[in-house]
Amino acid sequence: MRFVLGAAAAAAGYRLAAFDSIGSTNDEALVRARAGDPGRLWVVTAHQWKGRGRRGRTWQTPVGNLGASLLLVGPVQIAAAASLGFVAGLALSDALSRIAPRLSTATALDGAEAPGGTRFELKWPNDVLAGGAKLAGIMLESEALPGGVTAIVIGIGVNVAASPVDVPYPATSLADLGIEADAGAVFAALSDAWVVRHAQWDGGRGLAAVRADWLDRAAGLGGSVAVRVGERIVRGTFETLNEDGCLVVATEAGERISIAAGEVHFGTVASLGTTS
Fold it and tell me: Does the keyword ATP-binding apply (predicted)?
């Protein structure tokens, strides 16, 4: 598998470290940050065996799928950095739409109806869906470094050639969707799309525009939602994201509850009261 940066990414000064196989691209990015790497570095592979998702879960990257981590280093406020997950989601959605411009979705696999014409949807906080099934996941990690700077690693895993079968949620891949693209093509498009979306974010100053664009592609917006927050389940309507990126749920009791982290289920699954 050959990986190259997109033309816009190369022109913007991004660098690339590509591996045929690696344990974890996130781990490699953090090791390099600790060793003094200045950032703007993509670490990519088409096979990783120790990838991880949110909440300590394993993220499977069999041969042919894309595992990519972007290392950014600098003085940054963690609150602002947390919104980079939304930036990455938009960039990946942009990239996938370029690769598969004719793809459209209909009814989501968990029972929710996808808006007409939506190609790829963004599921809060950091997943990309196609037809209601998980196509990609994004995870952020950060670490304080000497000199008052912070390393931010944005890990992105895309099911390109295969989708997992032993997971408790619907999953899909580009191959499942009939899209003929390899991990190298997806990465090149992603690296260029990131440049545009990162400029829009502008150190957090463009967060309002990022939020508006994210909501335009949000899965389940305006529909039934159930969010597991620890041992508690919050049910209601997915109303919006607040300015901090929290999911806002309007309950039948008239409450508006802002949720910073949780497991989200939409549509029929949420209405039936099932979140397993």
Answer: yes
